[in-house]
Every structure is written in structure tokens, then in C-alpha cells.
Amino acid sequence: AQKITQTQPGMFVQEKEAVTLDCTYDTSDQSYGLFWYKQPSSGEMIFLIYQGSYDEQNATEGRYSLNFQKARKSANLVISASQLGDSAMYFCAMRVVFGNEKLTFGTGTRLTIIP
Amino acid sequence: EAQVTQNPRYLITVTGKKLTVTCSQNMNHEYMSWYRQDPGLGLRQIYYSMNVEVTDKGDVPEGYKVSRKEKRNFPLILESPSPNQTSLYFCASSLQPMNTEAFFGQGTRLTVV
Question: What tens digit of pLDDT does each residue of B20-59 get?
């Protein structure tokens, strides 16, 4: 079974600072994918970034990067130069290759950007 | 525009009154899922479908039913809703390859009184 742990229930960060959201995962599978989703107060789930277990380079998408440390089983999301619009709930999730297409989610981190 | 459409967005109902939440996707995705989101628990999978007429239980299937008669539609049925099914529900669809993200519907906030 897969498990995602997000240990930061809430974070407050000053605008324009970088922020790191922690995510650790547990799986016995060798092939898996790691995802980050953003959920603003309006409720929708917005895909941010993906990292495959065999990808050698850390994924980046604009201001988002994923700090992937396979040996530590961590997949932290880094947001550079935070903006007020980054205030939201952030979920880390995992999908394994063999099995149903289920995404296993963490409990989320609520990020608040302070002006 | 590629999207997953859920209806209704908000629903208040009474215990025991059957209801259906619809989900439709226009991306020709094979995989569709239902999740529920509860505070402190993240999102948990209720049911999933790998293709037409192929459905299976997720982690929290009790009290729910699904069907997949057409590729684009994957309705969630609550035959006899109870207050513990008050939650935020998401439908999601994706292609088969693992490295593709799941596309989520807008969510349905259900309250059972």
C-alpha cells in the first residue's frame, strides 16, 4: 500500500519569499509518479507538477519545482517568489504503475501568503 | 475545452433520499474515479473505472454505487445517504500512462441532514 505524509498542516510565508512544502512517501513499488495539486478556496483541484520515479532531473514548471530525493522518499514542492495568489491548500499525491489509477493523497498543507 | 463536469455543485438532502451526482469528461479518457475529501483526511478514492463496464471499489466504497455505461460518463449514486456521507466529492479522469495527471471536476459539496 502507498502512503503520503504531509507534516505541515499550515504555513505562513511573506510575499516574494520562497517556500518549501514537505512531502514524504512510502511504497514498495519501484515505478511510481508523484504529483502536486493546488486547491484554492474556490475548491477546484489544479495540477501543478509531476515527477516520475525514474526521472533523474528534478521537475520544474515555472515557479514550481519538485525537490525529489529518492533515497529519502521525499518529494518537496518549492515555490519561488511567492505571490498572494499562492494562498491555497496543497496536496502531494502518488500513483503507482501497476494497480488501479488511484492517486493516494496526503492530508494537505494550507499555505497563507502574507503581504 | 478539455474538462470534467460534475453536477450539481452543491446539494443538501435528507437522510435516505436517493441521489445521483453526475460526472462527464470530454477527453476520451479510459480511467475515471470518484474521491471524497474530508478535513484532515485528504482525498480518498471511492470507486474507479478502467473502461466501459469495468468498475471496482476504492478505499471507501461503502454506501456508494457507480456505473460506466458510456466512456464519457461515470455517475456516483448514493442509494440511501447518511450524514456521514456529508463531504466534498470529486470526479477525476485520466489517460492510462502513469505520468499523466488526473483532471478533476469542480467538486460537489454534499450535505446530508
Answer: 999 999 999 989 999 999 998 999 999 999 889 999 999 9
Percent of chain B's residues with pLDDT above 90: 85
Cβ of B42 and A45 within 8 Å? no
Q: Annotate chain A with three-state secondary structure.
A: CCEEECCCCEEEEECCCCEEECCEEECCCCCEEEEEEEECCCCCCEEEEEEECCCCCCCEECCEEEEEECCCCEEEEEECCCCHHHCEEEEEEEEECCCCCCCEECCCEEEEEEC
pLDDT at A89 over 70: yes
Distance from A3 to chain B by nearest Cα, in Å? Answer: 12
**Which of B59, B88, B103 is facing A43, going by the closest CB pair?**
B88
Closest alpha carbon within chain A to B99: A33
